[in-house]
């Protein structure tokens, strides 16, 4: 497998966070969207799934939705398609999660 340098996630990232890393060619940018009940520890649970499956979190945003008690968590990650599919399946297994999906980020 040939190695290449990961693109910087955005110009606003700090110099240390946007420094190049060596990754394989099958890596892509993905955005994972998660709708979950407002539970203590959900961000830790979600971030531990990414860590356990070897994917970096480049950006994480958690906001309330118009539905009381429901939060939307958006995570940007640079990983393989198989990796993001495994992450999404693991997240959806959590009782507090209503729906998890992903899409490939357009550059």
SSE class: alpha+beta
Instruction: Please give the radius of gyration in angstroms.
Output: 14 Å
Share in helix: 10-25%
Give the CA-based shape: globular
Query: What's the name of the CATH homologous superfamily?
Result: ACT domain
β content, as a range?
35-45%
Largest sheet strand order: 4-5-3-6
- CATH class, anyone? Alpha Beta
SSE ordering: EEEHEEHE
Please mark out the parts with pLDDT under 50 across 5 or more consecutive residues, or reply none.
10-23
Mean pLDDT over the residues: 81
Number of domains: 1
Main β-sheet description: 4 strands, antiparallel
Determine the CATH topology.
Alpha-Beta Plaits
Helical stretch tally: 2
Task: Provide the CATH architecture.
Answer: 2-Layer Sandwich
- Count the beta strands: 6
How far the N terminus sits from the C terminus, by CA atoms, comes to: 23 Å
Write the layout of secondary structure elements.
Layout: E1 3-5, E2 22-24, E3 27-37, H1 42-52, E4 57-64, E5 70-80, H2 81-92, E6 97-104
Antiparallel strand pairs: 1-2, 3-5, 3-6, 4-5
Short structural description:
This protein is α+β, with helices and mostly antiparallel strands.
Structure, described:
The structure is a single chain. With 107 residues, the chain is of the alpha+beta class. It has a single domain (25-104), classed as 2-Layer Sandwich (Alpha-Beta Plaits). It is built from two helices and six strands. It has helices at 42-52, 81-92; strands at residues 3-5, 22-24, 27-37, 57-64, 70-80, 97-104. The strands form two sheets. A four-stranded antiparallel beta sheet has the order 4-5-3-6, with helices on one face. The radius of gyration is 14 Å and the shape is globular. The chain starts with a strand and ends with a strand.
């Amino acid at each position: 497998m040939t190695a290449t340098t990961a693109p910087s996630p955005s110009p606003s990232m700090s110099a240390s966070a946007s420094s190049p890393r060596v990754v394989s060619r099958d890596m892509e940018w993905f955005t994972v969207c998660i709708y979950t009940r407002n539970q203590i520890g959900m961000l830790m649970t979600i971030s531990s799934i990414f860590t356990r499956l070897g994917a970096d979190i480049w950006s994480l945003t958690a906001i309330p939705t118009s539905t009381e008690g429901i939060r939307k968590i958006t995570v940007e990650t640079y990983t393989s398609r198989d990796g993001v599919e495994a992450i999404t399946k693991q997240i959806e297994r959590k009782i507090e999660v209503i729906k998890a999906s992903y899409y490939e980020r357009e550059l």
